[in-house]
Amino acid sequence: MIPDKPPKEDVFHGSEDLKKEAHISSFEKYKELYLKSIENPDEFWGDIAKDFFWKTKHTGQFLDYNFDVTKGEIFVKCMEGASTNICYNVLDRNVHERKLGDKVAFYWEGNEPGDELTVTYRELLQRVCQFANVLKSQGVKKGDRVSIYMPMVVELVVAMLACVRIGAVHSIVFAGFSAESLCERIMDSQCSLLITADGFYRGDKLINLKLLADEALQKCRDKGFPVKRCIMLKHLSKEAEQTLGSPPAKRSCPDLQQEKQTGRVKKTRPVPQVPWNPDVDLCWHTLVCGESDECEPEWCESEDPLFVLYTSGSTGKPKGVLHTISGYMLYTATTFKLVFDYQPDDVYWCTADIGWITGHSYITYGPLANGATSVLFEGLPTYPDVSRMWEIVDKYHVTKFYTAPTAIRLLMKYGSEPVQKYKRESLKVLGTVGEPINPEAWQWYYTVVGEKRCPIVDTFWQTETGGHVLTPLPAATPMKPGSATFPFFGVVPAILNESGEELEGPNEGYLVFKQPWPGVMRTVQGNHQRFETTYFKKFPGYYVTGDGCRRDKDGYFWITGRIDDMLNVSGHLLSTAEVESALVEHEVVAEAAVVGRPHPVKGESLYCFVTLTDGVTFSRALETDLKKQVREKIGAIATPDFIQEAPTLPKTRSGKIMRRVLRKIACDERDMGDISTLADSSVVEELFQNRCSTAV
Fold first, then answer.
1. Mind spelling out the 3-state secondary structure of 394-448?
2. In the prediction, which pLDDT does 142 show?
3. What does the alpha-carbon distance between residue 438 and residue 318 come to, in Å, rounded to a whole number?
4. Confidence label for 272 from pLDDT (cuts 50, 70 and 90)
5. N- to C-terminal Cα distance for the chain?
6. Pair 445, 411: CB distance under 8 Å
7. Which family does it belong to (predicted)?
8. What is the pLDDT of residues 129-178, one digit of tens each?
9. Does residue 249 register a pLDDT over 50?
10. Which residue ranges form the domains of the chain, and what is each CATH number?
């Protein structure tokens, strides 16, 4: 599975300085540890578990499982018999045992430049204990479900860690989701309490979060599921600042003033009118006042639930992915430490939202378990200008930077000048997450942002996997632009054909995993049958990712996109990601999305949407040039049938392209279904107005 030696050509390496300090500094060391993790997982993970606190030790084998639906119920169990508390391990252990109380846990950077806060590990522990006591005073106990619907503020981390301190299960809903989505998730996970905020700004846009939360709670009542309590944080109100002295970001209504450091003028922001229901609503700040900053942790069994997080389902109904305590803690801590080659003096920044799995694993649990210092960012990469990210990198001397290909492609549109305004000398490792990165964006990231001295860890994983499963390691595995490289420790991938047969050597097919790792999901909330059907029924004995994958002659894995993003054109399977990459290679194409539409002869035809760089006009000549480029890059079979200019693509608030919407546009079908998660729904009508004529 792992080649004896790494390839020599077409690869990129990290700096020699990085190799000197790296945890895993050579390909040979990686291979040695990988084989140990597969052949003797009990010893491999047992050694890692020694770095954590266990109230009781585990008995029996480290991992027990069944992946074969024909042999009984699917299950994964890790460290049965052990008990611990993840909050104790990420906070108390760092403050008391590792003496990191005065170390910065988070640099909070608000939406507005100059809106900032620093929180140490000791301060974070005190706040978490206070809010844990608040939850207990409201009757929340071990096993109860708590819904959290908050912006990117320190109190979001406080709320989730307070839940796990007392053994409650958090269900975080991204603050960009609609009231209907929040209601659906509250009811599905049977939440007894909601935690939210008055509102927040994303760039210039005000989000009245409490209004949405109230609408969701009314929908719950209408459906016979009343939520008895809602705790609201005053994030935008000055009142919280004045009466409680509680940061963060109660500063979005500042007086007009000149910022000495940046020379920017802060904008006066209107505060939303906050609805209030005295029978349900409680004020965060009032509740916290007077609460003790000490709270004994609730000791939990290894396989007790930690959190439920919802992800898209093929049926349209979101799946509540359930993760459990010990395995998830070990896996996120280990992947964070090794994939980002974490060192004690690092300042790490993941630009994701905590409402997604990336924020759970690589803003909260993984970094805190390692005693890391992180940047927590409320704003947008383009607000107030397109240099914001690099300004923050220099401000906090960020060493490890983790973002999405969508953000990289967005910033590529503006060229290198906004990046090169700032030094970025502190950067050592760059990472990508969320989707496969096309080689052109990879090269720009590597060359312009990292100045050819920072290795890129292009990580493949899912909400379901809990942490990275295919990834480079910064100083150990040579990189190929766009490749997810090799499996992480304990992960055994395989590529199957349609008949479920394992394919050896260079090949392409379904990506599956042959055995579990500690951080893999355990079930779908309230529906274990759906868990088994979705991930294990198609190929018994394997966890099915739902992604296509190619393995090259050197053994590198390349994610080709979701299986449902594979197109069958005249009997040939084509990857939409491959066609998109060919289009984006053209110098005037900033972003591309490809979908299929029915064709009477070929089965499916390719309908392409392209966003052009600033100042370029779409023309027939350009369309011909793009078709020629795809034909030359992939082959005549991949020649697009239709190419439509898309000034903006329909994206969720997290930046993911909604391909379901694009398919509807390509097929001229106006019944869009639920598009409440779109960041800008007006994009849809604009694309319909400019769609290509598809008459055959």
1. HHHCCCEEEECHHHHHHHHCCCCHHHHCCCCCCCCEEEECCCCCCHHHHHHHHHH
2. 98
3. 28
4. low
5. 47
6. no
7. Belongs to the ATP-dependent AMP-binding enzyme family.
8. 999 999 999 999 999 999 999 999 999 999 999 999 999 999 999 998 88
9. no
10. 570-690 (3.30.300.30)
